[in-house]
């Protein structure tokens, strides 16, 4: 591509089509910015803006109040001894794996784990032993599966895995496993546990110390109303010198964070949204009620919600044989559902899916959720 | 910190004090957003906004036009066979080191390298052999130093280093070494070269293929008018299967990028600014003229610019014995210069520095630079 006037015109400012839709995309519902975060973006958007008064370490910046946020507010919020901001939950997971395990080591993780947990392990050149769920329709993770998996690793390698990982909740079914029990089982074998809370921190109350997790990771853009990429990483005192080890040549810089992570507006949006985010986690019960109400309504329309039931999270997976049947004869084929929802200003179910799909009710409120339920009702009737 | 109403009030939206100052901070001058990027921030600020229509891989997204940007425009702009966006230049450097070198291997780098080059090598658990500059006052990197360093590594380890790194320009003196020569020397030993262009890509014309660099990294927030953290990574065809290797379990995901990097507004600001950024690199001569003019003016006021002379970049390092002398008797001591400049709405020389400091003239324009020169003149006269 020659970079002449006409090809350059392809770039520049672009508009986002689904911006003002009712959004039920699990990836997006928890990352919609607060008004304060939107203001922060404009104020702090310039590159390296937060570094105006940097003393050499991002988390030590006093102006703006990053130090208090990282060292006082976040540890209290997620119940971790030491916290840092990172470039995302996956970057947090890799940082932990790369710190506590050596190449060739084994780790244990649930088979509902996000793909990025597997890819992080592959990047760290680790082997993985998975804990199976019960499969369809509950996809339940039995905590005892962690004991079995750890023992398998010991049997095969003569030593326990370097760590275990539990997805809380998983990103397909929104299932919340018994994390406390998993932590306690892992600790019986002296195996530290990482809790992947990309879909929980910022949505619901989570406390790493209460659960007994040694590492906890969260996602700003997924669940903390932040502009990404940004995540959080909480580490227990026992492991903080390992994960946050400093450079021998550049004493202020933490090696695993490459010295500095969310060096810009992303962090300021997380701080801007924080008061609202803390408060919304205190109203989590209402979100669960909305999810259950929505699940019941969709089931009344002929779909089936799989995973935990009654459900405990806004992320839900539905099987929709009736919608699939319509797609077999509809003019737009498997894209008919996407188009029908789009024409009703509803965004978030992946285009082309009909037989099953996931969605999230987080933050939508009962009124918008009613609109979505009515839309499904209308669409089904339209094709009857 | 209890997260009650009064402590939460410490966070939320904050204003940025130096936002509208004349900015000469080397970290910041190339990262000031264009109007288009500021608009993009508001439009694409929500978490995972760019993923509305993701086919499973960030760089393959067609709407917005990420695929064309990453696979057509960027390769042309930086002269690299394959390009990806990353979370920043340091993240790009680590990705390359972690891909092409094994733990315990050696790499060679210039001793003007940014701290994050060293920290990236430490994170990848590599050993480093440095190429010295000529020291004060030129800080010149002799390309032949790379031959010596490579031979030292061979002598000590029986094999050449896994790669070499050259900083182009360095972040202290703004020196532009003979990168072509360094590349050619490295290739004589079959050692691939990474060019750290955090301070050049987006400011001045740079072409990896023309120089002969195997890897090239740039920084969006430092030099491409982007909201960070975001960077670019260019790789020659020869190494692209290694650096961008895919997951065996998740076929669309590139391991070294953890599947996905700049998954949000950061990328949209880079795309929004791109037409302007391309055009400004074509006016680089004017920036160099401004830098030289500014350097001469400051030297006339009793300061000395060290490094390349005449200078070839907007980033410059000054020694200021006269300013230091004033600080010895000024009421605010070593903070006097910062305060005097601040009162004249000039930001970017690190608070507390007087004996020497670095600054950048990039994008300021002759009028603002005259204001800065006049400010120094006034300040010196005031304390005479």
List the helices and strands and how they pair.
The structure is a homodimer of 384-residue chains.
Chain A: H1 5-8, E1 22-23, H2 35-44, H3 66-78, E2 82-86, H4 89-100, E3 106-110, H5 115-123, E4 127-131, H6 144-157, E5 163-167, H7 179-188, E6 193-196, H8 208-211, E7 215-219, H9 220-223, E8 231-235, H10 237-243, H11 265-281, H12 284-300, E9 304-306, E10 315-319, H13 321-329, H14 336-343, E11 346-347, E12 356-360, H15 365-382
Helix pairs in contact in A: 2-11, 4-5, 6-7, 12-15
Structure description:
The structure is a homodimer of 384-residue chains. Chain A is α/β, with parallel strands linked by helices and 384 residues long. Chain A is built from 15 helices and twelve strands. In chain A, the strands form three sheets. In chain A, strands 2-8-7-6-5-3-4 form a seven-stranded mixed sheet, with helices on both faces. In chain A, strand 9 and strand 10 form a beta hairpin. In chain A, helix 4 runs parallel beside helix 5 (115-123), helix 6 (144-157) runs parallel beside helix 7 and helix 12 (284-300) packs parallel to helix 15. The longest helix of chain A has 18 residues, at 365-382. Chain A is globular and about 70 Å long. The N and C termini of chain A lie far apart (50 Å). Chains A and B meet through helix 2, helix 3, helix 4, helix 5 and helix 9 of A and helix 2, helix 3, helix 4, helix 5 and helix 9 of B.
